[in-house]
Amino acid sequence: MEEIQDLAVMRPDQVNVPEEIQEAIRSLIRWAGDDPDREGLIDTPKRVAKAWKYYCRGYREDPENHLKTVFEEVGGYDDIVLLKDIPFYSHCEHHMAPIMGHAHIAYLPDKKVVGLSKLARVLKGYAHRLQIQERLTAQVADCIWNNLRPRGVAVVISAVHSCMAARGVETPNVQTVTKTLRGIYSEDPEQAKMILNLMGV
Ligand SMILES: Nc1nc2c(ncn2[C@@H]2O[C@H](COP(=O)(O)OP(=O)(O)OP(=O)(O)O)[C@@H](O)[C@H]2O)c(=O)[nH]1
Ligand SMILES: [Zn+2]
Fold first, then answer.
1. Which atom belonging to ligand 1 lies closest to the Cα atom of 92?
2. Where does the sequence pass through the membrane (predicted)?
3. CATH at 37
4. CA 143, 147, 149 angle in degrees (round to 5)?
5. Among protein residues, the one whose CA lies closest to atom 27 of ligand 1
6. Which domain holds residue 46?
7. Of the residues 2, 37, 67, 146, which has the maximum number of CB atoms within 10 A of its CB?
8. % of the chain surpassing 70 pLDDT
């Protein structure tokens, strides 16, 4: 199987797409009202299949692995670590339509910290699947909570759902906000207020 990073730069004709997948996409084009055999659409089934394999690359990783390397030498630092405004995209599991958003991820370490990029990697590992925003938020928080055993975790996600913008209720630019708090942030309202304030939400 192609490496996922390679998939981003491979030409459609270099990707091995099973005939049944291509046929499914041809059927969808026909059902939408176009002719899958016209010139401009000939390679579209392969392109679409390649794109979906890439959008859903999160299924081929275990986000917990990103938190296996920890650092215990923190020079006495024992306060909050917060990554603000991490951009991400996902796809909703109901319509397979894009979700575009930002996440704030915070934790209060207990003696050990993790590389900063790993928090964004965890987010992407779960985002690059078919999702609902609530589950994505909880999965990111629980992954950090279970693997780092910190004193607290707070995750806030704000996202726009294309299925609400470009179809259905047709209300563009609505930000859906979800939050998951664990540990001290779920137990102590003052701590929750402080971390949400720091996030600016
Ligand atoms: N809770 C939740 N709902 C979502 C998310 N993404 C999309 N949805 C909703 O999923 C619902 C699916 O509702 P259905 O009635 O089964 O499908 P539908 O007829 O396409 O719904 P409409 O979008 O209202 O036209 C819609 O209300 C969407 O807004 C999400 O991340 N979380
Ligand atoms: Zn949707």
1. 6
2. none
3. 1.10.286
4. 110
5. 164
6. 4-55
7. 67
8. 98
Q: What is the mean pLDDT of residues 170-197?
A: 98
Active site residues per annotation: 92-95, 133, 161, 163
Residues 51 and 74 both lie in one domain:
no
pTM score, whole prediction = 0.95
- Interhelix angle 116-127/133-148, rounded to 10 degrees, is 140
Strands (E), 23-164: 70-71, 81-92, 98-108, 113-114, 130-131, 152-161
Residues 96 and 184 in one domain: yes
Residue 6: pLDDT band with limits 50, 70, 90: confident
Q: Does the Cβ of 93 fall within 6 Å of ligand 1?
A: no
Domain count, the chain: 2
Q: Provide the ipTM.
A: 0.94
Model confidence pLDDT, tens digit, residues 28-57: 999 999 999 999 999 999 999 999 999 999
Flag whether 60 is in a domain: no
